[in-house]
Specification:
The complex is a heterodimer of chains A (452) and B (917).
Chain A: E1 3-10, E2 15-18, E3 22-26, E4 40-44, H1 47-61, E5 82-86, E6 89-95, E7 101-107, E8 112-116, E9 120-123, H2 128-134, E10 144-147, H3 151-156, E11 162-169, H4 170-184, E12 187-192, H5 194-203, E13 214-219, E14 222-226, E15 234-236, E16 254-259, E17 266-272, E18 275-281, H6 296-303, H7 310-315, H8 326-333, H9 337-349, E19 353-356, E20 361-364, H10 379-389, E21 393-395, E22 402-407, E23 410-417, E24 420-423, H11 426-431, H12 439-451
Parallel strand pairs in A: 3-10
Antiparallel strand pairs in A: 1-11, 2-3, 4-8, 4-10, 5-6, 5-9, 6-7, 7-18, 12-16, 13-14, 13-15, 16-17, 17-18, 19-20, 21-22, 22-23, 23-24
Chain B: H1 7-15, H2 18-26, H3 37-49, H4 61-77, H5 80-85, H6 90-100, H7 108-114, H8 120-128, H9 138-144, H10 147-153, H11 159-165, H12 187-193, H13 197-203, H14 205-211, H15 213-225, H16 230-243, H17 247-252, H18 254-260, H19 266-282, H20 287-294, H21 303-319, H22 324-334, H23 340-350, H24 357-365, H25 372-382, H26 418-430, H27 435-448, H28 453-458, H29 460-465, H30 472-485, H31 505-521, H32 541-554, H33 560-568, H34 587-595, H35 607-617, H36 624-630, E1 644-651, E2 658-665, E3 668-669, E4 684-685, H37 704-710, H38 719-730, H39 757-767, H40 773-788, H41 794-806, H42 812-823, H43 829-841, H44 852-866, H45 872-877, H46 885-896, E5 903-905, E6 913-915
Helix pairs in contact in B: 1-2, 1-4, 2-4, 3-4, 14-15, 15-16, 16-19, 18-19, 19-21, 20-21, 21-22, 21-23, 22-23, 23-25, 24-25, 26-27, 26-30, 27-31, 30-31, 33-34, 33-35, 34-35, 38-39, 39-41, 40-42, 41-43, 42-43, 42-44, 43-44, 44-46
Classes of the chains: A alpha+beta (452), B mainly alpha (917).
Chain lengths: 452, 917
Amino acid sequence: MAEVQHAYRYAGASALDDRSGPHLALVTSATGALPTSHFFEGRVHQPRLVADALTAVHLIVGSRFFTPPNMLAKRIALADPVVTSGGGVLRFEGFSACCSAYIRVDLGPEGYAGEVTGKGTTNVDFNAPMRAALARVRDDHGLGLSVGSGELTLATSNGSVTERKVALPERWVRGMLEVQAFQAGMTPRLEAGSVESLRFLRALPRASTARTPLWIARGAAGLITTTRAVEGGVRVTDSTRLRVLEPLLPGVRHLRVYADPSNQASAWVLDFDGMRVSLVLSAETWRGFSGEGQSLYALMRLGNAGNHSVLDRVRAQLNWQHLLRVDGLALSTGLPGERVADALHALGASGLVGYDVAEQGYFHRVLPFDLSGIEDAHPRLAAARELLEHAAVHLDDGAVFAATVDSDGGAHRVRAVDAEIRCTCPWFARHGAERGPCKHVLAARSAWEARA
Amino acid sequence: MSEVVPEALDHAMSQGDTAAVIAALRDIPQENRPGLAKALRATLRVLAKQDDPHLPWEMKQPLRDRERATQAALFVCGTAKDVADHRIRIEDAAPLAREFAPPCLEGLGDALMSGPWPSLPYINPFIEHGLMQRPDSDAHTLLMMDLPTYAIYQKKASLEAYVAADPTLHPVILRVMEIEGTSDASLAAIDKYRQDAWLGFFHSPWSQAQFGRDVLLDKALDALAQDWPQFRSGWFSRFHERMAPTLDELHARLPRYLALCRSRIPPTVGMALKVIDAVDANHPLATTDLLDALAPAMHAAAKGHALLAMKMIERRLRSEPHAANAAARLLADALGHSDAAVQAKAIKLLGNLALDDSLRDTLNDYLAAVAASNRVALAALAGARPETPHATLDVSLSTPLLPGPCDPSREVPSIDDVDTLAERIAYVFENGTDIDAFEAVVTALTRMAPLDARTRERLAPAAKRLKRLRKPLTQALGQIVAVLLDVTVLPYERQVDAYGEHPGIDIDILDRVMDTVATAQHGAGLEPLDAATHQGGFIDPHRLAMRIAAHAAAGVLPARRAGIRALMRLAPPTGSKPDLRALPDSPLLRAFRYALGDTLDGGELDMPLMVAASRARHPGNDDPILLAALGDLGPDTTRAPVFRWHVDTRTSASGEYVHRRIIVDDGFVPEGADRLLIALHGHQPATFVPRYASQHFNYAGTDEALIRFWATLAPGCLHTFFAAGCRLLGNNLDWSEAQWQNRAYLAPLLEPTVTPGPPGTLLIALALAGKEPGQLALAIDALAQTVLDARIDINALGVDMALLLAGEHVRASRYAKALATAARIAPGMPPVIIRLLEALVAARADDPPRDTALLLSLLHELLLETGMEPGENLRAVLPVLKVTGRSAALRKALLTLRSAAFVAAPVSGPLNFCRRP
């Protein structure tokens, strides 16, 4: 299994200490020459809620909802959560060890009183003693929060930096990237209040239903589950992944559930005053998010002639904004909206932007991983480009999109039927369009668009 | 540098003489020994290849001796990794280490821990003999989890005695309480099978003296604070309970228990609440601390937690009435709990408090959320006017218009071009359970044969895929494709089930493949007679007529088997019957006419064809005409199967274990039955003798696609199919074996063209009591769909469910949960669920099964929510129901529903219910 080597450089461990009241001091990983990244000093308005939300992030990061049959029994320590400060919003992102659940806590200006002291993205230390201490946080005692440390604190403390190296599975890193593209395609499907949400989640099976996908829809008397596909419903496998939201639901204003058009992944967004928690679930626990081809069309188009500068021009606009929308960027760059959308897809796939499904927009953040070592970030894209280079695509004459693609010692047909693009390859036969296009479809579409 | 093994050593190893090996080693200078390692490894590899697994153990002794001798040599000459890679006995290693001080001792501990056999029985002896230090790592701690097994089986001692005797364990043994472990190696997992060895050890006087009670209690609380999964956390709550901390010990750790009230793990929360209750009763906590800790319990899933928390609040309010406002806010949160009893308690406590306007508004917001039985009381508190009579669930039931089997919406799409054919073949190869797609492909391939060059080119990728097909139905299609493409036909791999049996359906599938290929090879553009034209396996009579005509026009005599299969799949004609007058007479045509309702014309009868026609003409019923003409040929021939079932209960000699299984009888295949009576194949042969008590005759085996395929063979009547489902699902309700494929027996119940009949009804009754949540969800959907389509006899379902419950084959708690879910799926479900609940409550009135309270509670709530009146049967049973406690209170509440006058509301459909004004 390919790995991405990563090093944490923490000057201490995150902890709940007592400096004129309970204070959560989150230690950030040093980036570049700076000994630490310092993002925030202040207090949160809803201590108990923030504590529960950060606990949920830690739980997801340490969770494995699927263990491959040949996996060793011992746990693999994976990445610490990632914290981003930009536009006054603090975001904490986490990804499960099995790559099937992504969580993000967004703390906005309405949720805190304090000073945002820096912008950027880095890892943040979450540890078991800190989480245990979070259980003692109380609203009436208040909670201070610091994300990173100021120079003064470092100067007065034993500020030696400890380096800890981890080997992140490439599959995990790719999943962290791909989950943004999934969210970009999602639309709201269901909404529920606090009591209904909690009761519904409690009524979900306590054992995994990974083998039998359930559909969640609004029935005669509230949210229901069924094994039958429902228009406007949300498909979920293994609802045990949702249990992490239970402690948060009593205080929620509303729960909104989003799903992508192919009904694969879903996003469960809890709205509070000044804070939002988003939990994104993959289609299957064993599948994760990696290997999904949501960004492939965009990446392919950007590689075509005439589009090479699009990515650079959009990237030049990034400055830690907490909300980036296609129309705004199109205005500032003068580029067509579709190209800007492609560029944002590509930037998400490169870890340079994240997607906020509730705001239906992107935010600038730079995942702190060295992605240069991932040789085949998008194997299907590379394979499609290879097919084009070898002139393996033979477009049919005529106005209707159809092509024969020489591949794997044979020839596959790619054609448009009823607004769907189909291929005769086994990959498409198995997955349909649920996981993005196969390499033949990608190559054929690219050739078609080039000809057009 | 690699050395040649000296002859003496080589000879000693080849003789398996370890003593001689040691003597030979003494003659080899120390500096020369490492050079021999490579050759010794090679010798061990050769010896490993000589191991014959089929030889009896005693015949392998010479080989074992040679291995042992060589391992001893390698121990002296090799590295630590060599020792780790090749299991050497400690009896050899220990004296060799003392005499030779070999280089392998350096780094031995790390090598063994990272070697291929990191097990306690292998590694511990090395530690005990001083050949390595005891590691202090997570990996070693995981190994230590299994110390009870090692102590009992290797050391023949209790865990306490063993640990006490090994000082190297004392500094590290507590580490087992610091790591979560794995599914196999955790304190909870080991204790489950070792009679709580770890619990006993840490609770023992030795441990308490060695480590101190404070340390042990703190370790337990540290672990509980980690929120490990419930099974692993539960060990620590049980340990805490066994330690029975004193009040002083509890009080000293009070902040930790307060924090544990926020745990995600219910048993941890339960433990923490009990502690706080005990401490608070003796040393009252500060009110703010108490209420803050109890706040999460108001939303706890476990009803007991919420009730205990409210008990503590009530106690506090007695001593501190000024805490009423803060307490009231918490009590209001409890109204969101799903359990009616929790809500009722909260309402009762709130009723004792003075409520301000803001709180009343909050209570008002909960009115729609609380159980119907609590609404009036809550409305009074909130100062609101409750809606009467709480008819919040829509109970309307419309008469559905169901599509028939040959409805155009259910037609299997025709494949007319080669590109679509290529796509669909690829699709079926990857999705073998889509039987409709399989049928479409078979039809198209046969019709397009012989395949021209362009088609062959397009299907070349499919040909490439043939080697990778693993599932039976895809292999069957693969055989057809292979023949038509003139490539190698790969064999069809027959399944073997857990009992070593092949399912009979394989033969029928292979017969169909042969017949289909034969039709295709005529090259006349014919469709197979027996390929489905509509979903579920149905064949439109008009299409069958066209196919027969096409065969006749092409001068092709259809295969008799294909004709039989086609008749079995015949759908009832909708509208006009096909005109068969122009078709040439044949046994098939005569049978076809008979299937469509014609009389027998007195000519010679082709028995298998006529029997197949009989099933199409009388699905699920006897055929009196053919019974008289041909006699009783068995179930699903000239007569329908007779379906019977009962629960067989056996108790062990000691009386401790009771085993129940459901026996389903739908008739046996008579001896000597004609093989062409294909519908008989789904029945158990009279000669079948199960070799195991759990074994059933299983026509379709364990492959989901084949089960789904079976359902399409005679789609007009699935009674035999459902009976098989009853046997398989009904005897695995507790999911003691993962049989994912069995959900295929439920799937047809979702189709509007399927009538469950008695076996299908029993299947639903059984599946609603299943443990596996996915299968249960499917059963609930099947119940809802058959009800909404008016395809099921609810009274019969109620009878079956009641019998199963009375016979204790199923649990009331599971029925309650399933029916609660079903009641909310669609409008029109609640009256049906009420009827079923009434039947269940009456199942065993003199000795109600466990958890009858759950059924009564659900019934009560649904009657209130719908404004309906209890039925006649329930009114008769309630007074004689022998219940106590909560069940008795619910019975009383139900009896009081009788007193209101009611108005019968006319309703279309099979149900009649009464609605209160």
